[in-house]
């Protein structure tokens, strides 16, 4: 009986020939990412252990990205605790360099790896054929101390991608459509695997965006077959694959869904659920107060280029705050060289330092009572971006930029 | 303004700046009353809870230096502080205090002569008596007395606009 | 008997000769209200019973302290401002353009000889173009918005004369810090601080802004520079005879004259927690630093960023040290993009934020915690200003800040 990609990666990490969905396996982790959202809690627990030690410090990557620059003495203290600990133990440490998942993609993730991240969007690493999954700080601590953890081998939903996205339609629209179709818990505990001829039409930025959002359908992880595009990205960033896995022809999938990319349309996820999707044009009467282009989901160079093309020579609508937040320093610098940052600044957008920004809802661009944000961020839960009585719509970089220009929710062809 | 009152003294130092009187973090609270617990918090976190209505503050030179935040004198007034006696005041704070009807008294000696908890008898425009000693104090210029007597600038303007 | 610059500016406004101590009522040329104070000024204005703004074109609303917003009620301030602007026909609203004090001259509002009031103490900055400008509370601002007028006492003048050429590692920030140290934090209370001499003549407007900006830290009512050709170029106006006359007469009477040789200045720091606690950088050298902040209305201008870039080019800031750069305005950000300054700074590891008040106002932008040390180019190091009261804040020039970012220890450039 064949195995899925997920099963193969876990079997490898468990030192076994094979495993199957539903098994519980003890695995050795390849990498452990943690950010300033929770690391201070992990450290507190670590310090309470009887014999605290780190199994393999080279596997740890700690990243300050949520509240940078710090916005309160409390967050500053959490970050100091993290910085001091990383320094003392020689943990790879990034601060202010960008959103954790983007930094991991640029610098660490390799195909075939099994990675825990103390952040739900760790599933983004599937874009490079790595099994990334989000864990809480207790699980993280256990893995940090022992180098291992246990995992329930997930079933896999396989998405066969066919065709090509139309002009003006983006990976973001695709994954929101998929989440809308299978619902916000449609992939609970499962792996979402993407393959098929349509995959070759998607850039790495598209792929990261798709995998990143799979947790919003409840998925444990997302995985994509590793092809030349992925290998080129890896090479360009100076890394080699650990192992390249592919689901067997006779692997057992919980479900196989065919997706025709050419049928996807610009989509908006309305408040307050990611699967509350509608045709973007249905929202054109919604007035916005703020727009956000950025995050681990859509803050890459390709996304900024899309926005810049649309806004070049135009202005942000009066009274709208348009936050543009490159996902990493590398993205910031490329965008700077290409003139994209200036295009946004000229148009009246606010270019921010690379970080999680308003997607995290605490550090920058917090919205007030009754305000409406259109965002390329990952979530639109109630109160996610600020006041409990505020509203977040999720959309693509193109739709967000067009909306910033118009002042109401709009698609790129409307501005 | 000339009626005497007695007040318990709280002593603060030189250069009590507006960030000490009310840190920036709390400036955007909607109501001055909500800011009260945070007054003087960088220097003495428990002071705001100890000050009782009618108490007075005695300080050194340059009281209220720094920002133009009017929340600073407003919060002192909201705590019920009857008056501040300092060696000198920063000018923006001084104007803001007068405009809000908070009595400020300039006196060079008192700060060096009293300790926290002493009880003083204050007669505005005339004198302060404490520990058996009397300190003369000057009255304010006429144009400021007008604002103070009107009960602050808002009331003066309402009068001007025929509202009161 | 001659007149000082401030006496001339106020005298011109009230159409009579004035002298220090006179109480006069002036017609206000410009009012600036920043985002923190908008809701308070608006409610006082309405409580006072006014139904129109005396001249909506003379009011400028600027959102800068709360940008980007970090608390759920911050955007209420923008909304109240926008509603007020709409209701009373105020067209000059800057929502995301940068720090108020940078914009008031950069965007072409305040000109030589004018009188401006703002709801922020660093309104004194506009003295850099020879305007009388000072900070007031929101209640007085509400009164001005209704009446167009404010009373003030004509100040005495403390004249500062500096001649000669400053050492290469000394900037106008070191100069003003030294002057504040000599004056003390209340030494210029109620007075007009006026800067002159050939060192001053050689300074850019940006450098002068740094000095005007910090005049309030010595308690001054205003910090003035006589307008010259450079000023007029910056303000995009003609250098007329009227403007030429805006300088203190030879025989004017000064409360105090302070004279300096430029060559004697050294890089200095304002040490915790008072702006007048001035020490040479060399004296504090070697102290470990956790964060460096380059920005604010004091030192967030292009020349400041360029100074830092020159020091950091091809190098990287110290490991585990955060170097936060916050350009003062959108225009400066774009200029620094265009000339490669931001690229150099980013390559060096700077965290470059969007223009605004940032860390200086102590609400966001790099807050610190107990036991941490920050070297910052802004104007205040008060207790608790950038986090807890156990944060040590050292104020410095952009050059000192950049040199310190490189080594992780307080370092003279």
Share of helical residues of chain B: 25-40%
Number of helices of chain B: 8
Annotated CATH homologous superfamily of chain B: Aconitase, domain 4
- Please tell me the total number of domains of chain B: 1
Biggest sheet overview of chain C: 5 strands, parallel
Number of helices of chain C: 16
Mean pLDDT of chain C: 97
**What separation lies between the terminal Cα atoms of chain B?**
20 Å
Elements of chain B, N to C (H/E): EHHHEHEHEHEEEHH
Tally of separate domains of chain C: 3
CATH first level of chain B: Alpha Beta
Number of strands of chain C: 18
CATH architecture of the largest domain in chain C: 2-Layer Sandwich
| Major sheet strand order of chain B | 4-3-2-1-5-6-7
CATH top level assignment of the largest domain in chain C: Alpha Beta
Q: Which pair of chains forms the biggest interface, and how many residues does each contribute?
A: B-C, 43 and 52 residues
Envelope shape of chain C: globular
CATH topology of chain B: Aconitase, domain 4
Question: What structural class should be given to the helix and strand makeup of chain B?
Answer: alpha/beta
Describe this structure as you would to a colleague:
The complex is a heterotrimer of chains A (415), B (164) and C (413). Chain A has 415 residues and is of the alpha/beta class. Chain A folds into two domains: 5-261, Aconitase, domain 3, CATH 3.30.499; 267-414, 2-Layer Sandwich (Aconitase, domain 3), CATH 3.30.499. Chain A has helices at residues 5-14, 39-47, 73-89, 100-107, 137-146, 171-182, 204-213, 228-236, 295-298, 301-311, 329-337, 340-347, 397-406, and strands at 24-28, 31-35, 60-64, 92-95, 114-117, 131-134, 148-152, 156-162, 191-195, 221-224, 255-260, 267-269, 277-279, 290-294, 321-325, 350-351, 372-375, 391-394. Chain A has a five-stranded parallel β-sheet with strand order 4-3-2-5-6, sandwiched between helices. Chain A has a five-stranded parallel β-sheet with strand order 16-15-14-17-18. In chain A, helix 6 (171-182) packs parallel to helix 7 (204-213), helix 10 crosses helix 12 (340-347) and helix 10 runs parallel beside helix 13 (397-406). The radius of gyration of chain A is 20 Å and the shape is globular. The termini of chain A are far apart. In chain B, 30% of the residues lie in helices and 20% in strands. Chain B has a single domain (5-160), classed as Aconitase, domain 4 (Alpha-Beta Barrel), CATH 3.20.19. A seven-stranded mixed β-sheet of chain B has the order 4-3-2-1-5-6-7, with helices on one face. With 413 residues, chain C is of the alpha/beta class. Chain C has three domains: 25-152, Aconitase, domain 3, CATH 3.30.499.10; 157-264, Aconitase, domain 3 (2-Layer Sandwich), CATH 3.30.499.10; 268-407, 2-Layer Sandwich (Aconitase, domain 3), CATH 3.30.499. Chain C contains 16 helices and 18 strands. Chain C has helices at residues 5-14, 38-47, 74-88, 100-106, 138-147, 172-183, 198-202, 205-214, 229-235, 241-244, 281-284, 296-299, 302-312, 330-338, 341-347, 398-407; strands spanning 23-27, 30-34, 59-62, 93-94, 115-118, 132-135, 149-153, 157-163, 192-196, 222-225, 256-261, 268-270, 278-280, 291-295, 322-326, 351-352, 373-376, 392-395. In chain C, the strands form five sheets. Chain C has a five-stranded parallel β-sheet with strand order 4-3-2-5-6, with helices on both faces. In chain C, helix 3 (74-88) links the parallel strand 3 (59-62) and strand 4. The longest helix of chain C is centred in the N-terminal third of the chain and has 15 residues, at 74-88. The mean pLDDT of chain C is 97. Chains in contact: A-C, B-C. Chains B and C meet through helix 5 and helix 8 of B and helix 2, helix 3 and helix 5 of C.
